[in-house]
Amino acid sequence: MVSIISKLITPSYKLRRCDDAPQFKLITADRALCWVHEGRHYKKLSPVFHCHQVILEQFLEDFWDYYRELLAYKNDPRTEAALLLRSKFRRLFETQSGYELLDERKQLTATKVSELLRVLEHPELPLHNNPAELAARTMVQRRNISYATQTIEGTQAWDTFMSLVATTRQLGISFFDYVRDRISQLGIIPSLSTIIREKSSLYPLGLSWQLE
């Protein structure tokens, strides 16, 4: 079982919102890349010359202005706006700035156009995967404190319970009440899969996911 916020699954299509780490490739039919992660690549640049600093600062302003335009598109998706955003993407990432390291980084971003602009096809998609990363933070903190498990069974138990904690939290269910219900075999709380289906039916992904 995985936390319900870690991936987005449609009835006939699977898509994962993630960063561009190679281990996420080929896991699903398609990917939508995280804009926040993409922006971090540019923050790592450390120009020495003042002229390059100015160029980078201006680019970052343009980068996040474009991000805000994508957010606005999600609330009012229109064909004309999608075409304009695609054109702006090309200008933003394909125009040479004169700062070589920045231009090299922009070229790498330009190759990810389809994954970064997936939201233009499916406005229901989020633009970043921060919620999924926050859900994994508890696991990372626990690992840092206790280092690791000693057996395969311990790892499986650890993963299962941490996943249950994350999923019950997202569903608004008390983890303590859920475990007590299962141990006592009362059966008052439905299975998590049933609750997930009920809640997902209240939030349809929209017409953009329907088969033609």
Q: How would you describe what is shown here?
A:
This protein is mostly helical and 212 residues long. The protein has helices at 35-43, 50-75, 79-94, 100-110, 113-116, 130-146, 152-171, 175-184, 192-201, and strands at 8-10, 13-18, 30-33. The protein has a three-stranded mixed sheet with strand order 1-2-3. Strand 1 and strand 2 form a beta hairpin. Helix 2 (50-75) packs antiparallel against helix 3. The two termini are 31 Å apart.
Provide a brief overview of the structure:
With 212 residues, the chain is mainly alpha-helical. The protein has 9 helices and 3 strands; from the N terminus they run E-E-E-H-H-H-H-H-H-H-H-H. A 3-stranded mixed beta sheet has the order 1-2-3.
Task: Give the secondary structure arrangement, pairings included.
Elements: E1 8-10, E2 13-18, E3 30-33, H1 35-43, H2 50-75, H3 79-94, H4 100-110, H5 113-116, H6 130-146, H7 152-171, H8 175-184, H9 192-201
Parallel strand pairs: 2-3
Antiparallel strand pairs: 1-2
Structural class by SSE content: mainly alpha
Largest sheet: 3 strands, mixed
Overall tally of structural domains: 2
| Strand residue percentage | 5-15%
Distance between the termini: 31 Å
Net shape = elongated
Spatial strand order of the main sheet: 1-2-3
**SSE order, one letter for each helix or strand:** EEEHHHHHHHHH
Keyphrases for this structure?
3 strands, elongated, mainly alpha, 2 domains, disordered N terminus, 58% helix, 212 residues, 3-stranded mixed beta sheet, 9 helices
